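Task: sequence design from structure.
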């Protein structure tokens, strides 16, 4: 009887059996299922989205890119328009902690270059000079700037007090490529957000009314969408952008390009919204709102759109890359933004000459940034699209 001394007993003194591991597991599963049943839609979406590792990594990458773009003045070591004709096409400098003699330095540094000329081809090239050692300084005060055009400052994240540092090399005018890529990120990434916002507005309103009202309005809307989508995208972009007056300032051209991309990009979202509205307009909650006296605008914006807002978020996330690629393509072809405006498409104009690319391959780095951003948005959109149906396995 000693083995029952410390165990709970029943009314007649018999030992009560302990729950098995399987029963405990069943209770845990039941608790999880109950938590899922009472959770809100957005919490279910978040639970499923965070299990998509690639989407989570892409979200982190996009947060870094947009942080660098928003505060590009602070992160850029130089003014993107600063020139030095004696430092043209300088190759990227490598950050070092160990010098040529094997000594370790706590403060990172870069080696300078000696400018040389090949007497046979007359080509300028650079050789590392280990006697020119430029220690990197953090939070240095250098070129003045206005953060977002409002607050004056001259504080930069890093730089050198003497010498120069070109972590991504320089271009044909001796301008720092890292600074220009960071400044270009502001325009190239923001034009996607602004363009998608306008496309979202047009797509939800036009597609929503087409699916809710139906009839001749739906037929006319669908024919317009089919006509727009049947036109090749690049020629349509080129034709509309060529209609912009050449004397416009760059900021007005920027908004003009944004409107052009939005006028083309709303069609896909409008078709998605229309198809959802066709299936929702006969639902009980829509009928109840109509019987309660709600007008069409309130029914669409307060009852129908929120019911599939997660799908809209996934759709616009997948639409942003096309906006970025559109601006880059137009600027690369010389039909979008022009210098002195700085965007990734404008920077890629430097890489149009194959000979220049062969001698200075770092000029293609803006294209690499476009690829990384587009892939990150695509993976993020895939994760949001899968998470939009949180009850699926």
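Answer:
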């Amino acid at each position: 009887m000693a083995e029952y001394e410390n165990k709970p007993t029943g009314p007649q003194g018999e030992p009560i059996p302990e729950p098995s591991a399987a029963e405990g597991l069943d209770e845990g599963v039941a608790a999880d299922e109950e938590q899922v049943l009472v959770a809100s839609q957005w919490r279910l979406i978040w639970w499923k989205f965070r299990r998509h590792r690639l989407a989570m990594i892409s979200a982190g990458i996009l947060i870094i890119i947009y942080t660098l773009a928003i505060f590009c003045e602070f992160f850029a070591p130089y003014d993107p328009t600063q020139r030095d004709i004696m430092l043209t096409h300088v190759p990227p400098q490598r950050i070092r902690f160990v010098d040529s003699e094997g000594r370790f330095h706590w403060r990172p540094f870069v080696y300078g270059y000696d400018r040389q000329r090949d007497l046979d081809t007359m080509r300028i090239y650079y050789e590392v000079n280990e006697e020119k050692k430029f220690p990197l300084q953090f939070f240095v005060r250098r070129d003045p700037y206005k953060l977002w055009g409002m607050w004056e400052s001259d504080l930069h994240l890093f730089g050198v007090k003497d010498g120069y540092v070109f972590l991504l090399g320089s271009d044909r005018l001796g301008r720092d490529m890292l600074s220009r890529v960071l400044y270009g990120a502001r325009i190239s990434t923001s034009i996607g957000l602004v363009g998608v916002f306008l496309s979202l507005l047009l797509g939800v309103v036009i597609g929503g009314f087409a699916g809710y009202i139906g009839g001749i309005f739906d037929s006319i809307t669908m024919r317009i969408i089919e006509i727009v989508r049947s036109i090749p995208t690049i020629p349509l972009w080129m034709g509309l952008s060529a209609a912009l007056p050449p004397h416009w300032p760059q900021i007005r051209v920027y908004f003009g390009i944004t409107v052009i991309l939005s006028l083309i990009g709303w069609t896909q979202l409008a078709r998605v919204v229309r198809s959802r509205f066709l299936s929702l307009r006969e639902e009980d909650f829509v009928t109840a709102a109509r019987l309660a006296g709600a007008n069409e605008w309130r029914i669409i914006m307060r009852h129908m759109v929120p019911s599939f807002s997660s799908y809209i978020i996934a759709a616009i996330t997948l639409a942003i890359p096309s906006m970025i690629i559109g601006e880059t393509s137009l600027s690369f072809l010389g039909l979008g933004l022009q210098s002195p405006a700085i965007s990734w498409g404008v920077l890629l104009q430097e890489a149009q000459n194959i000979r220049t690319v062969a001698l200075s391959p770092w000029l293609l780095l803006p294209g690499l940034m476009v690829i990384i951003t587009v892939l990150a948005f695509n993976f993020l959109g895939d994760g949001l699209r899968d998470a939009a149906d949180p009850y699926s396995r």
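The mean pLDDT is 81.
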